[in-house]
Amino acid sequence: MAELDYTVATDKPVDEAIQALQSALAERKFSALWHLHVNEKLQEKGFHLEPEFHIFEVCNPAKAKQALETDQKVGYLLPCKIVVYADRNDGNRTKIGLLRPQTLIGLLGDERFRDLATEVEQELRAVVDAAAR
Predict the structure, then answer these.
(1) Which residue in 9, 12, 32, 51 has its CB near the most CB atoms, within 10 A?
(2) What distance, in Å, lies between the first and last C-alpha atoms of the chain?
(3) Which residues fall within 8 angstroms of residue 76, CB to CB, at 6 or more apart?
């Protein structure tokens, strides 16, 4: 099976990596539809989690429309997720990563998505790389 994720490490603290991610997304016409600060949400429920973990659901509206017009089942995979977290297995070093659209789209078995998934993945990898620099 193909790799599920694309993840890079950065020397930036989590908060700086998040700011850089949001800027890189905007530069490539993606937006964060939703930001879940997992630690805060778990704390609301009485659970403590360390270190920091954030989940972003991101979208490029034109690409989402194209995908949904091809086959609505792709909606099960939308929007794309990017995570920013302090990796406890790597000295709390900040990591930025995404689920690979090519791998996920491959689960549908519909070749009509191949080029779009490749394009989206290349753009989101560029976003992650830019945020990590």
Answers:
(1) 12
(2) 29
(3) none
Torsion of CA 8, 11, 14, 15, to 10 degrees: -130
- Binning pLDDT at 50, 70 and 90, where does residue 106 land? confident
Q: Residue 42 above 70 pLDDT?
A: yes
Structure tokens at 123: 């753009």
Tell me the pTM: 0.93
**DSSP letter string over 16-36?**
HHHHHHHHHHHHTT-EEEEEE
Write the DSSP string, 23-73: HHHHHTT-EEEEEEEHHHHHHHTT----S-EEEEEEE-HHHHHHHHHH-GG
Q: How many CB atoms lie within 10 A of CB 1?
A: 6
